[in-house]
Design a protein that fits this description.
3-stranded antiparallel β-sheet, alpha/beta, 2 domains, single chain, globular, 8-stranded mixed β-sheet, 379 residues, Aspartate Aminotransferase, domain 2, metal-binding, 14 helices
Length: 379
């Protein structure tokens, strides 16, 4: 592991980027040098709340993806294994994104030789609908006038079309039921260290991106982009490294406090009683890659005589899988029509599994969880 500050050598990219445009310029390097077939990133559609995944093959189109989109938590692992498994791909990843990619690599659904992962430090994401309501209620601004947003120094900051900025403390927003998604509030993985590099503004100087280089591939990315004239770099000061570590520590402490508050408050049996077995949580899950041949589709799991159907077999099977697989992305919560906090239940069980085995999905460097490893642990 090593650290570097970087920024784009291209003025337009540096201006459009979140903190110096280093990430966009690294993607430009990979495309222009023919190292990858395409870049999977997010771009706004109708507005900043509507980020959509885009596969870019022309580096001139990259500038449209520059910046942060905290209202668009797309799980890229699922997209890569379904649509781009046979291509060389570079991809921007939040911590839950790279955790899903890592788990799909273990399941042989993604070839690690085919992907370059550029991690983005993450303080959390916000629901697009909630974001609009939140800005309308707590900011002196029209949600349609927002051109960018950022989570920094404990605040949710918006930039307006007239150049003005407004900020409200995340704590105050979340006290009133707004702010980050519930799964983001309890997430204790803030820096995507399983990615080749992890980038962000924590500890960075103005106009520079702070990059943690996590492996040999990451070092090659930085060296190649610098040698090709795409980025410039310099070493961060010791105080910058310490400042970044301090921010991470504070955010993890907040997450642990939220875990203590939410885990005891959820009763699995009460929540599952509302389940209608629609399978939406299974179908959206980035780790459930085998849904087309899922055992839960077999006739002996169907309960046609009960309305609503008994959820115990469905949720029991899923729980047995997710105890060592859940990356707490929260997508199951987003799609559940009965407002069941599915990810909270799965994450609670994942923490219990971690306490017993030491394994954390998408974080632990062991090739497989203890349940499947030849080095089994006696529980």
């Amino acid at each position: 592991m090593s650290y570097v500050l970087a920024k784009s050598k291209y003025e337009d990219i540096a201006k459009a980027g979140e903190c110096g445009g280093a990430v966009t310029s690294i993607f430009k390097y990979l495309l222009d040098e023919g190292i990858v077939d395409g870049v999977l990133a997010l771009r706004p559609c109708d507005d900043v709340y509507d980020g959509i995944p885009t596969f870019i093959t022309n580096s001139e189109d990259l500038i449209g993806t520059a910046g942060s989109y905290h209202c668009a938590p797309t799980m890229v692992g699922d997209l890569i294994q379904k649509y781009y498994a046979d291509k060389k791909v570079a991809v921007s990843v939040k911590p839950c994104d790279i955790r899903s990619v890592d788990e799909l690599i273990k399941r042989h659904k993604i070839n690690p030789d085919n992907i370059f992962t550029v991690g983005l430090n993450c303080g959390g994401t916000v629901s697009p609908i909630q974001a609009r309501k939140m800005i309308d209620l707590y900011y002196e601004a029209d949600p349609d006038d927002v051109i960018s947003e950022e989570i920094d120094k404990g605040q949710f900051i918006i930039e307006l079309a007239d150049g003005g900025e407004e900020a409200v403390k995340i704590h105050d927003l979340e006290e009133n039921g707004y702010g980050r998604r519930k799964n983001c509030q309890r997430c204790d993985v803030k820096i995507p260290r399983r990615a080749n590099i992890a980038c962000g503004n924590w500890g960075a100087e103005d106009g520079w991106t702070f990059i943690e280089i996590n492996d040999e591939k990451g070092q090659e990315l930085i060296d190649g982009a610098k040698k090709g004239g795409f980025i410039e770099t310099k070493n961060p000061a010791d105080a910058a490294v310490e400042g970044r570590a301090k921010v991470e520590k504070i955010m993890i402490k907040m997450a642990k406090n939220n875990q203590k508050a939410t885990y005891p408050a959820v009763s699995e049996s009460d929540e599952w009683s509302r389940c209608i077995s629609c399978y939406a949580c299974r179908d959206i899950c980035p780790i459930c890659w085998c849904y087309k041949n899922c055992e839960l589709n077999k006739p002996y799991f169907k309960d046609e005589g009960s309305i609503p159907p008994s959820p115990i077999a469905f949720q029991g099977v899923r729980l047995s899988h997710m105890s060592f697989s859940c990356v707490d992305c929260g997508q199951c919560d987003d799609v559940c029509p009965m407002d069941i906090p599915v990810s909270l239940i799965f994450d609670k069980l994942q923490k219990k599994y971690c306490d017993r085995t030491g394994y954390v999905a998408g974080v632990t460097t062991d090739s497989k969880p203890p349940l499947y490893s030849p080095d089994k642990v006696e529980l």
